[in-house]
């Protein structure tokens, strides 16, 4: 998801504020707020995202059923969870990770959220640990924790997508993926050029053009000691960015011209959501490309 917003007023912050308004208008149906028991009318909303968007400002002066919100915004790396199945959850967080004027790097802050909004993609085992704590603690989440956990490993996701393709055929195209349990298996690969990625790290992607380059990267992949995924190199005409909060969906097409900055255009979506049955997963919609560049 594209990271919206900065601390200065502008289109991106306005986007976040608009998203916050839509989020709050749908929260009553997504999460039973009246059942969240606290000692006051103020609720703690944990937003898991980086600091590119100030969600505290986006939710300022917003209320649901007469309740105001105190926003705690942190990344997955900042969070440590203590949870029980009785719903007791605490988050010790290093204060240096918080954007506050008075900071003590040796002090931790602790809080108990009433509900959660996840905007950051989990990519490490430590992030998986946070998800497990959230699930066990039973903290209401606008996002589907079940879905996010299932989407953690690409082989699992593509196995489900392949089953959907068997039903829809060419109407539902899926990129060919090859699973390899170890880096040494790369020596058997013959179809070049290709893209090699390591486990669930979407940022660790390498392009290989021949067997010599494969031999060069195998020692690097062996240090990670995890499975790898290989896919053919496809020249993409555009990138799709799908965002969802509650029942609000947005789809953007990003094209990269030969000169200048990338161009982002919002496109229409239609409710053809075969992917929504993916293990109670994220609802994905098929966009209409009538306004998209070829």
UniProtKB/TrEMBL annotation:
GO terms for cellular component: synaptic vesicle membrane. One of its GO terms (molecular function) is ATP binding. Residues 41-141 form the Synapsin pre-ATP-grasp domain. Transmembrane segments: none annotated. InterPro entries: ATP_grasp_subdomain_1 (IPR013815), PreATP-grasp_dom_sf (IPR016185), Synapsin_ATP-bd_dom (IPR020898), Synapsin_pre-ATP-grasp_dom (IPR020897). One of its GO terms (biological process) is neurotransmitter secretion. This is Synapsin pre-ATP-grasp domain-containing protein.
